[in-house]
Design goal:
GO molecular function: phosphorelay sensor kinase activity
Radius of gyration: 33 Å
Catalytic activity: ATP + protein L-histidine = ADP + protein N-phospho-L-histidine
InterPro entries: CheY-like_superfamily, HATPase_C_sf, HATPase_dom, His_kinase_dom, HisK_dim/P_dom, HisK_dim/P_sf, Sig_transdc_His_kin-like_C, Sig_transdc_resp-reg_receiver
Oligomer: single chain
Protein name: histidine kinase
Pfam families: HATPase_c (PF02518), HisKA (PF00512), Response_reg (PF00072)
Distance between the termini: 54 Å
Amino acid sequence: MIATANATILHVNDTPASLYLGTFCLRQAGYHVLEAVTGGEALKVALEGRPDVVVLDVKLPDMSGYEVCRLLKADPRTRETSVIHTSATFITAEKKIIGLRAGADVYLTQPFDPEELIATVNSVLRLRRVEREALANAARLEEADRKKDEFLAMLGHELRNPLAAIALAVQMLGQKDSNGLSEADSRRRSIIERQVSHLRHLVDDLLDVSRITRGKYALRRGRLDLNTILHHSLAAARPVMEERLLVLKEALPEEPCWVDGDRTRLEQVFTNLLDNAAKYSPEGSVITVGAHVDADHRVRVSVQDTGIGLPPGEQERIFELFAQLETGLARSRGGLGIGLTLVRHLVEEHGGQVAVFSEGPGLGSTFTVTLPLLVDAARPEAHVERVETQKGEWRILLVDDNPDAREGLSEMLQMWGHTVVVAADGHEALSLATPGSYDVIILDIGLPGLSGYEVAEELRQRAATDAHLIALTGYGAPEDRARSEEAGFDLHLVKPVELVEIGRVLAQLGPVKRGAHPRQQARARSA
């Protein structure tokens, strides 16, 4: 609280008796009091003395108290000062409205009781204290939110880097030695692949929940056949189901179900629902995915299991953040308790709803996702993307500070026939990237010394800007992608990346054109 002895009050009144009596009462109460008899003097004293409260008569010789109040609130140096309007004339509702609109906090009628004046000043000071504390708390929360975002971005990068190295090594092992592995070793490799994939999804969910629950993401919408989304999600879930000895069934419509949605996010919805069903289903349970179109142009997708079910109280809170069933089975399956929260937010962002129903413990659960269908649902023209592997075409500079990831990807790229030079940091990359030396530069962003953004910006200012710049990084938020594009990257890939995806990207790159990069040319024209 603002202590009375430390609070400064500016008393403004051109009537000597009223000025004396008001100032006397305020000083008796322990306030430090400044005085002014005109509006101009009040503004000057307010700037010099920075009072906490201005007790301001509305009738002054040079300007009205309303105008003084308006000017105080318009000046950034005095806008936080509280104002109490006083008047010796009858106060109408209209006058009160004028004063409040000018920025006053309260209105007093003269002559007022000294105790009323002191009580009003105290009340205004308490309100001012609360407002200051609220603003300070808001600033602290905003700073904490910013630090949390920075921490999550760093955490995602640090987790994805080792995951990328592990995933790459396992994929290479599968490509090189799949025929020579024993059945036991092949099974062990499959376990590593599945667990790396599981860890990657956990990292993605951890980062996504912060962005999605605060609306810091954007859907990349397009016309999609929901059946295709469901088939992809089912294909991803089958290995986990088989590992846990679960039976996976499907009952999907034969006709396409066209929706306006984000392919990646919708696959995330159904993958999370299937993972949730598997997590809470004991061995031998049946999980059924069904879909049907309603007469109201909506498609309803159900994920039904015969697992442990839900008590009524859990059905109310199952979509809350970090909600998990208090069972040994749930904890043995792991998870962060955020998958269903993501499902709810993503479905609602697509204009749909998600619901759960269970008859009780031991009787299974059914999750239902309802999405609007496109009214004009004519099948778009099919587009078949052909990717042909290109051998020995690119001269590649690979920049990554993780030696395992750097060595593994370099080996794979050379196996594909490319010429590869490696660098461990940004300074080394800049020293190697002489004009015309490379066709492709694959660049990590979280590098020591110079960040990948800084390296890309420097490269785009050189004659070496003819090279294709690809960001291969653990930073995958929308703002990270936007920043990499601004820095001059042509593509942004998030670790861990499947080898087939890297091969597809390299196969689709166009021929290198020597000369200034298009983004650099555009900047030159704008300059």
